[in-house]
Design a protein that fits this description.
The complex is a heterotrimer of chains A (213), B (265) and C (540).
Chain A (H helix, E strand, L loop, with lengths): L3 H12 L21 H14 L3 E5 L4 H8 L5 E5 L15 E5 L11 H6 L2 E4 L3 E3 L4 E4 L16 E7 L3 E2 L2 H6 L7 E4 L4 E2 L7 E2 L6 E7 L1
Parallel strand pairs in A: 1-12, 2-3, 2-4, 4-7, 5-8, 7-12
Antiparallel strand pairs in A: 5-6, 6-9, 10-11
Chain B lengths: L1 E4 L3 H6 L1 H13 L3 E3 L9 H5 L3 H16 L5 E4 L2 H17 L3 H12 L1 E3 H8 L5 H5 L6 E5 L2 H6 L5 H7 L5 E2 L15 H4 L1 H18 L3 E4 L2 H13 L5 E4 H6 L20
Parallel strand pairs in B: 1-2, 1-3, 3-4, 5-6, 5-7, 7-8
Chain C lengths: L23 H9 L2 H23 L4 H17 L1 H14 L3 E5 L2 H15 L3 E4 L3 H6 L1 H7 L3 E4 L2 H8 L17 H11 L11 H18 L2 E4 L3 E3 L4 E6 L3 H7 L3 E7 L3 E2 L5 H12 L7 E6 L9 E7 L3 H5 L15 H5 L1 H6 L10 H12 L18 H5 L6 H18 L10 H16 L2 H8 L2 H8 L4 E2 L7 H6 L2 E2 L6 H9 L13 H7 L3 H12 L8
Parallel strand pairs in C: 1-10, 2-3, 2-4, 4-7, 5-8, 7-10
Antiparallel strand pairs in C: 5-6, 6-9, 11-12
The chains are: A alpha/beta (213), B alpha/beta (265), C alpha/beta (540).
């Protein structure tokens, strides 16, 4: 008796008895945007709001103030080790940032229980697709490992304007596939009950997006 | 033009008035109409029921019947049967190893047009009242038959011609693009599902308040009309060729006696 | 060239939940009587149809994406052996383990051993069609391992006694909010006894129930949406975050993957991540998409397993017409637009795969001659709405007709009908035989239709037929047949105008030139229709 692998591959080869020769795929869909940056940002904002994400426009000067305001109710929040410290408000008596080292097996990483106990997470992002309202995290130092943007209930995500593209092909082209990738399009949601979209199930129920100029 | 009428089997046997109406419209435009007597059926009933072997002689009969005649185009008052010619006949002939018939069937299919296609795309008709003298003072709704819509890609051709008929008041049904539940032998092999589909269709038709439901395939209209009749609905079904053929001088009468039914199910 | 001429390979069908257990018409008949189900399905399918229409029509290149998607999948199937080996190489090189399963049973066995090796009795699960196909949950339960469904709809189905999924995307589409509230009140320990039927509150109850499971269970089971051959990358799309929980927090992840789920390159994701969510939930993008390439130290499961499963897929691949069913990306658009699915519901299809795609997939995976799979290809009016909606352009109506041919051949091969002359198959054969004879000769049609006036005897004073016997009686269960005319068109024509010559010679009109000259007329006719009779929708 042959092993499963050889048997399955043998079956496949036998099933392709007619040696089908389909044509090379044609990629006539849009691969490069023909829109200007301002218009692309407008589209992104429109899509994000449609998904019930909150959107803010900030600059290097105003971002810390905005994050301060968004963290109003938080006491502890987590940030990845590579996040630009200048974006963050000063710790106060009632609120402090906790830095995650980025590797669960090494010191300085929060356990899942600890992550479950923090109130929020602040990260940057790698690339955002305006047409679909999608923000891509690619495990870069300012984004951290996957668990930190998943377990806390509130995600404040910074989208630098230069990372915004219009189309999905432009988005995919900017990704490093060797590192874990998470695409986020609005807060966690379900449509499983009568196809009514409800924001907030297991992932973060609040998504604040800061578009940083 | 010399136009060969492909009546389709169901029109021939059950709705000769639809073929007559088609002839009347074609002749009004000055075309010569001929009827290849050897014709029978497009073979769709066999093919769609999975009886491919039995479909083959039917395909051969159709191809032979039309090849015996000289004509410019063939025209049929059916989207479904016309679609079947190009879509299924060559496949059935190929399957039987008869390449000559397959080629001939494809050629014939390329020269066969559904009525609204012929009127608009070949004759350039865009206004039934003005160019055909069509007149039908009724409130009408329209069922878009699936095969015309999705296999022939007729778009709104049939509906548009109906809407330009003189005196006609038009109203569109909800879920216009949903199947009426006919589906050939599906209608009795899956009778209950088909019955549920036509019940919804009939309900939407009645909601429009139309006195007439028209369409481009008598098979669907027979299904819809049969369900309306069972419900004792006053709404009548007529083929759109009959509406186009109707004129002020010679109007189509639809408000005939509504027969009394012995209660069905 | 036919398959037999070349020596069609002997195919191995799959096992598991890929069978219709009773004739579709009978199952459907029962389901149609369930008014609540009809209402739930009608509401849900209409809603999702509208959403899908909106997000597919807003893209100027939707048809280009469909074309690309279809062509990419055709490439995958034509080179499936090569891509699978390439995927295995890359997945393994990046720290993953690849297992091969000939059928559903073997796949379940592999998963069981892997779970037992971790020494756990409870695992978390992401909604997966592949594990529904293999019946994994029930199998694991026999060995004392409890699989927790974490997708909300699957959770509703799992908590609802003896319930099973009825839709690929929305497995609990047959349940409305009140039914779900009642299930949650009954089954979720510690839930608010006054839980309302507000979907947001119901989702909150699910979060409450599953949070602890996510934080503690060490093994998760998933399916996969796309596996990338040239990198070994896996992709899962989801909405709720339960997927991310299962893909990120456990130590061990076991992924079931049908052998057909591959894409050649990462670039292909740019096509499929557009096609899938818009076709599926009718969203521009689903809330979460996860992609991972092997093991990442310190981030996510360190034990990654994938089980590559055949279970009848190679049998589908052997059929030239039917193999396009393998291109399916499980979006469920076909069932959302299907008028038969909308009325009969997903359970009526028996198999894990309902709707139009199920009607062509189950008979091919499990064999058309097995159980009542042969009734599935007939569960369609061939309206074609599924083909138009399919993001990878699977010509479902063509495959349905092709499989009907196989069903008839299989049934003929069985010989005598058990039911004798009352057997519907016998009656169908008789109808088709008679029609073939009739339609093989125009002369015979002419003679036969001379008998039309006789049929008036049947219609009687009602001028219609309200009851037919046998198989065709299905027609008159719901409709009348009009009174036949007194003469057929052919006989009338022959009598009145039979003298036209067949051959007249001369040159023929250039039809193509006429069509070219009239190419603006379709738009013109539509504009005139709009002007003459604007659409006024009533009673909506």
């Amino acid at each position: 008796m042959t092993d499963a692998k050889s048997e399955i591959l043998g079956r496949i080869r036998a099933s392709l008895w007619d040696s089908p020769q389909p044509a090379e795929p044609v990629r006539t869909y849009r691969r490069v945007s023909d829109k200007g940056q301002e218009e692309i940002i407008e589209i992104l904002v429109d899509r994000l709001i449609d998904y019930k994400a909150n959107v803010y426009h900030e600059t290097a000067e105003t971002i810390a103030g905005r994050i301060d305001e968004l963290l109003a109710k938080a006491s502890r929040y987590v940030v990845p080790a590579g996040l630009d410290a200048a974006w963050l408000p000063e710790d106060t008596a009632s609120r402090s940032a906790v830095t995650d080292s980025g590797n669960a097996d090494k010191p300085g990483a929060l356990s899942v229980r600890e992550l479950d106990a923090v109130d929020a997470v602040v990260t940057s992002s790698t690339v955002s697709c305006a047409e679909t309202g999608t923000i891509a995290l690619n495990s870069n130092p300012a984004e951290g490992r996957r668990a930190i943007t998943l377990v806390p209930d509130h995600h404040i995500c910074v989208v630098p304007v230069e990372t915004i593209v219009e189309l999905i092909p432009e988005t995919v082209a900017r990704l490093d596939i060797e590192k874990p990738i998470t695409w986020i399009s609005g807060p966690s949601a379900t449509s499983d009950i009568e196809l009514i979209r409800v924001e907030g199930v297991h992932g973060p129920r609040t998504l604040d997006v800061i578009i940083l100029k | 033009m010399r136009v060969a009428l492909f009546s389709t089997c169901i029109v021939d046997a059950m709705y000769p008035k639809v073929a007559a109406a088609t002839v009347s419209v074609l002749e009004r435009l000055g075309h010569e109409v001929v009827f290849p007597q050897g014709q029978t059926c497009c073979s769709q009933m066999h093919v769609n029921s999975g009886y491919f072997d039995d479909a083959y002689p039917v395909v051969k009969t159709h191809v032979k019947a039309f090849s015996e005649w000289d004509f410019d185009v063939a025209v049929a008052p059916s989207g479904s049967c016309v679609a079947s010619l190009g879509h299924q006949q060559p496949m059935i002939a190929e399957r039987a190893g008869d390449t000559a018939t397959a080629t001939a069937a494809a050629d014939l299919a390329a020269r066969t047009f559904e009525l609204s296609q012929f009127l608009i795309d070949i004759c350039g008709i865009t206004d039934a009242a003005e160019q055909l003298g069509s007149y039908f003072p009724e409130k009408v709704t329209f069922h878009a038959s699936c095969h015309g819509m999705r296999l022939l890609r007729l778009g709104t051709r049939q509906e548009d011609l109906v809407r330009t008929v003189g005196g006609l008041e038009y109203t569109q049904i909800e879920d216009q693009d949903q199947c009426c539940g006919f589906g050939g032998t599906f209608s009795f092999k899956n009778a209950d599902t088909s019955g549920a589909m036509v019940a919804d269709k009939v309900q939407h038709i009645e909601e429009t308040g139309a006195s007439v439901c028209t369409g481009g395939d008598v098979s669907c209209l027979m299904n819809i009309g049969g369900a309306l009749s069972r419900k004792e609905s006053p709404v009548q079904t007529v083929h759109f060729a009959e509406i186009l053929a109707s004129t002020k001088e010679n109007p189509l009468k639809v408000s005939g006696p509504v027969s009394v039914t012995a209660g069905g199910k | 060239m036919t398959a037999t001429a070349l020596g069609m390979p002997q195919v191995r069908h799959g096992v598991g939940n890929i069978f219709e257990h009773e004739p579709f018409p009978e199952y459907a008949k029962r389901e149609l009587k369930n008014e609540q189900l009809r209402a739930n399905l009608g509401f849900a399918t209409h809603k999702i149809r509208t959403k899908r229409d909106a997000v597919t029509s807003e893209l100027p290149d939707w048809q280009d994406l469909r074309t690309a998607g279809s062509m990419i999948k055709q490439q995958v199937m034509a080179n499936l052996d090569t891509y699978l080996e390439e995927f295995e190489r890359n997945f393994t090189a990046k720290g993953g383990h690849v297992h091969w399963a000939r059928d559903a049973h073997e796949a379940n066995e592999i998963a069981l051993k892997l779970i037992q090796a971790e020494g756990v009795t409870e695992v978390n699960k992401i909604k997966s069609m592949a594990t529904a196909e293999t019946g994994l949950n029930e199998y694991l339960e026999e060995f004392g391992i409890h699989a927790i469904e974490t997708d909300l709809a699957e959770e509703i189905v799992q908590l609802g006694d003896n319930d099973r999924p009825s839709h690929i995307l929305v497995p609990a589409i047959h349940r409305n909010r009140t039914e779900i509230r009642d299930i949650f009140r009954r089954k979720i320990e510690g839930v608010n006894p006054n839980l309302s039927d507000d979907p947001a509150e119901l989702a909150e109850a699910s979060r409450f129930r599953l949070r602890e499971k996510f934080l503690t269970n060490k093994v998760a089971i998933s399916g996969v949406n796309f596996g990338i051959a040239d990198t070994g990358t896996m992709t899962i799309v989801e909405s709720e975050g339960n997927g991310r929980m299962c893909l990120t927090l456990p130590d061990t992840l076991i992924t079931f993957m049908g052998v057909e789920k591959l894409l050649p390159t990462v670039q292909d994701l740019e096509v499929f991540t557009q096609l899938l969510p818009r076709s599926s939930t009718g969203e521009r993008m689903n809330p979460y998409t996860s992609m991972w390439t092997g093991v990442t130290p310190g981030d996510g499961p360190q034990n990654l397993h994938v089980i590559l499963m055949d279970n009848g897929r190679t049998a589908v691949l052997a059929d030239q017409v039917g193999r396009q069913a393998l291109n399916c990306i499980r979006c469920s658009a076909c069932m959302n637009v299907c008028p038969v699915y909308e009325r009969a519901g997903g359970h009526a299809y028996g198999s894990t795969y309902p709707g139009p795609i199920g009607a062509i997939l189950s008979p091919q995976l499990g064999g058309i001659e097995n159980e009542h799979n042969a009734t599935l290809p007939f569960a369609s009016s061939l309206c074609g709405a599924c083909y138009d909606a399919c993001p990878v352009k699977i010509n479902i109506p063509d495959v349905l007709v092709h499989l009907r041919g196989k069903a008839v051949d299989a049934e003929k091969a069985q010989g005598e009908f058990a039911g004798g002359k009352k057997d519907p198959h016998y009656q169908m054969d008789a109808i088709m035989f008679g029609a073939k004879k009739l339609f093989s000769s125009g002369k015979l049609m002419g003679l036969a239709t001379k008998g039309l006036p006789v049929s008036k005897l049947v219609t009687g004073k009602k001028h219609k037929i309200s009851k037919l016997p046998g198989l065709v009686g299905g027609w008159t269960d719901y409709r009348d047949i009009p009174e036949p005319p007194s003469t057929s068109f052919r006989n009338q024509w022959k009598k009145e105008r039979g003298a036209a010559p067949k051959r007249v010679g001369g040159s023929r009109v250039d039809v193509a030139a006429l069509m070219e000259a009239n190419k603006t007329k379709v738009a013109e006719a539509h504009a005139k229709a709009e002007a003459a009779n604007p659409i006024i929708k009533e009673a909506q």
